[in-house]
Task: structure prediction
Amino acid sequence: MKNIFSILKLTAVTLVLFAVIYPLSIYGVAQLAPNQGKGETLSVNEKVIGYQKIGQKFDKSNYFWGRPSAVDYNAAGSAGSNKGPSNAEYLALVQKRIDTLLLVHPYLKKADIPSDMVTASGSGLDPNVSPQGALIQVKRIAKERKLDEAKVKALVESKINTAVVGPESVNVLELNIALDGLK
Amino acid sequence: MNTELLGVIGIFILTIVLAIPFGKYIAKVFTGDKTLLDPIFNPLEKFIFKISGINPAEEMNWKQHLKALLSINMVWFFLCFFVLMFQGSLFLNPDNNPNMSPDLAFNTAISFLVNCDLQHYSGESGVSYLSQMVLMFLQFVSAGVGIAAAAMVFTAMREKTTEKLGNFYNYFVKSCTRILLPLSAIVAIVLVFSGTPMTFEGKDAITSLQGDQVEVSRGPAAAFIGIKHIGTNGGGFFGANSAHPLENPTYFTNAVELWAQLIVPFAMIFALGFFLNKRKFSYIVFGVMTIGFLLLVIPTISSELNGNPAIEKMGIAQTTGAMEGKEVRFGPAISGFWSIATTVISTGSVNSMHDSSMPISGAMQLLAMMVNAFYGGCGVGYLNFYIFIILAVFISGLMVGRTPEFLGKKIEAREVKIAAFIAILHPLLILSGTALASYLAANDTAMGYWFSGNATGWLNNPGNHGFSEMLYEYTSSAANNGSGFEGLGDNNPFWNISTGIVLLLARFIPIIGPLAIAGLLANKKYIPESAGTLKTDTSIFGIMIFAVIAIIAALSFFPALALGPLAEYFTL
Result:
């Protein structure tokens, strides 16, 4: 019986330590972090239009598009498609995505399309595409916005995140915000 | 692509290098030697023990350890179960998420209790912030229990002839405060400054650049993710786990989270060497585990980098590798590496969706959990390996005609029976669960209460891959891993209850077994080493252990792997 009370008391005191004091300490430290630990946001004309790390849906033809998403970029949830690599239904969907890309970008060859542009991300909220994924859209964007193609291409190249290790990427939301500012 | 591989190699080597001094520190925590952190933790622990009325110096035998371990786990189960059942009307629930159904609360409470974190809910909509905090508490203590159990086995291996194997509460509290807490805090702080939220505010509603209305889930995630990896728990704060851009924002945080899940399991192996003063033995153990690990990692990374052959046939460049279910900021190489790290180590956090991995990678992930002894989870990884050591000592003893001895203690029928039972339990749980689910799915049985609709409805993919989804779920449960082929429709009474039972058996029996063997051996007469002793710190013995593991895993699981991922590989 004494043991049971000891266990209950030990549970209570460790619960306070690990589920109250520990998270509150981290919360305290977070007040020093960007945007006080509420997630970094991006603003246009002082209006918050999104989170820097969370991808957004772009399907209008005057914006750069991101990757396909299993949750349609609604960050109230998150998920991948969980389709297996041999699933026939899934492969038909990939084929459809390829066809759409080719239809909208008639100048493209299939071999130019990188696989990230036709596959859904793990979170459904991937904020990035590969540099190639953005570059293949340059011609379309330039035409839609009546901009100089070289200028749009230079913009994309300036937005490529390179690192010492790891893959290169382009943040689609940041790119599109910069694109809106391009004259 | 080359820098991607460099990243993988760099993280792996750095973790090993750091694990050696950290292992020395862990050994000191168990022996009670002085460490630099004493001024902080001595008063804290004194306070904890005083309030609880526990004397940490009271020695226990193995049965008392076990009794303490099992009873405290029972208390935690009820605590968590009731919070989850009534979270909807309790405090800290800004998103107004509903109560869990009893079967889901049963599954979730067990799965966090047993350090598995199989999640049949999504963090954004399935739990309140209060529940997240209680689950986080379980992430600490379940890892602490694993380490404490290993500490008892370490003590039993060191002592000559004794019943006294230290105090469970002492090992448990010190593991939590001195090992898990400081490391988790470091990881959490790194994450906070890299963009992971740590707020108690609910969902944010915004109008996107294009003009769509969207919501963004947030929460006290950073603290949670720290212990999630340090404690090798792996339960995600958000549904997509570490693939979520807020849970794992950059390539750098990905490296930190990988390091965080590897460090304690690596360090535990070295701690054993320092604790027993048998450094060479721990290097042999680490070597065997590393070879096994690399044999799983290399085919995985290579098949992910090569991309999906079916999509390649459509004419799409596979320069970025297989990207379904993966994030651009990580790429296929480190995602492949992570998928094996998380399965050998029983973390079960994912930074890519395993359901969409290439077939060979899926086979390797499954195999990693089927073996379940390469590094392994906090503490329990070593306990699983200990079973294989006992079997290897016994078999090699028979082969060379010497009495099986391990560290000066005779291995006799009773110990071998326990070890054999534990070794058989793992495939038994996995294969009988899979057989039942496959039987139901093959007949497309109407499930009634157990599942809304017919049994094939829980599959997200047809054919061999569908079989792999069911196999993966039970393997992950039995290995207390927690990752999943997440396409499986698992939030229903059938899967919640059946995996819940597997989780319980697969956690506690493989703790009870090694504790019993170690306790029995510790009680035996010590035989000094002689010319007739089979040496256990040689590479020959290392090969022997590896052979035992390979034979047990291959014989039990090869047929199932052939029906699932291997068949898919050959048809792709």
